[in-house]
User: Fold TetR/AcrR family transcriptional regulator from Xanthocytophaga flava.
Amino acid sequence: MSSIDRKTRHKEALRTGILQAARNIALKEGWQAVTIRKIADEVEYTPPIVYEFFENKEAVFFEVAMDGFTILRSMLEAEVIEDKHKKLCRYAIIHWHFAEQNPELYKLMFGIESIPSIAAERPQEVLSIGELIKNAMKAITPDLEDKEYKELFFQWMCIVHGFITMALIMRHRIEKEPDAWEPELYLERATRRFIKSIQ
Amino acid sequence: MSSIDRKTRHKEALRTGILQAARNIALKEGWQAVTIRKIADEVEYTPPIVYEFFENKEAVFFEVAMDGFTILRSMLEAEVIEDKHKKLCRYAIIHWHFAEQNPELYKLMFGIESIPSIAAERPQEVLSIGELIKNAMKAITPDLEDKEYKELFFQWMCIVHGFITMALIMRHRIEKEPDAWEPELYLERATRRFIKSIQ
DNA sequence: TAAAAAAATCTACCTTTGTTAGATTTTTTA
DNA sequence: TAAAAAATCTAACAAAGGTAGATTTTTTTA
Assistant:
């Protein structure tokens, strides 16, 4: 019986190893450089092993992105903020921190410079983040219709994701330039403005 | 002498034909489906002909994107708006119209779902659009430092590009859903809010 | 106008990559 | 310990970016 356990454990480890390998390579060289052969090499197997666990390369990417949404959600959930007016603002900053610390992962999740946006598929992971944000909005402005919260969520995402996209696109340029730039400050002002406008 | 003209004319036509072919294929199947062989096929030559005009595939994409910025700029410049407070708002809408009418081109220009953002390279075409926007801002809020206009431009781009990115990402989803959605209205409200905040 | 030079274009190949069929090795079962 | 099952690999395919060198076409020159 324990040999069966060992086997399933090993399979599980191999599976996560594949995902980890994909992340590692992307971190160093970007998603376009992630190949099945490199992944196999990193887990010390031959290429076909990847297809034992995933239908194709896209499925590997999809799962990596999915894990990304889970991480992002748990980061958002971990924040306990009493002040309901500061909550949304704080969420925006956390969102930004996540993107800053995992730029490649973020790009994969939202289809920047890589493959079509996985966020667009709207699986459960994505929807539940949406609920989190909408709840924060309900605290500020109660008694709106569901449709209206949807619109507000969309607008909020425009601001936050727009900021992150621009920041990631311009990152290396900006770093080289003399003028200091305070990304968090920009984002904070923008979200404050938004919160003020809806309350 | 006229045979030399005919030849240069033909070369010029072939060059633009290659660019056009790339656009055509992307329009139908997306940028990831654009191959050198397909381009060559469309212009009725063999693959190596592409390399007579462009260093590699990326160079073809780059030039297509560059033309996109030229088109966008001329669309912005074509608008003559007296009311300086409405100008920025109108610019945002034109920007959106451009993205809506040329979604694939826009994605290429800003690195959505495709290759790294060409906008990040900041060639002249991109910079001159920036100047256009900054001038509109100067009309509303004069006497700021250059650095401050830079920040405002960045913020404005976050709003507009964030909106477009989200709209393009969510497009097919949204179209399927029952609730009507008024993209232009959302964008207009967001930019109005911004303009109000800077004046 | 015919040979030589230059220009335009192609054929045939290389390498990398995603992917798969079928063989081989290893492990488990009876 | 032999047969069955599972795990894994070898060897190949096709499609793609890219290029060297051959071939065809056009132009030049004597």
Residues 146-176 of chain A form the longest helix (31 residues).
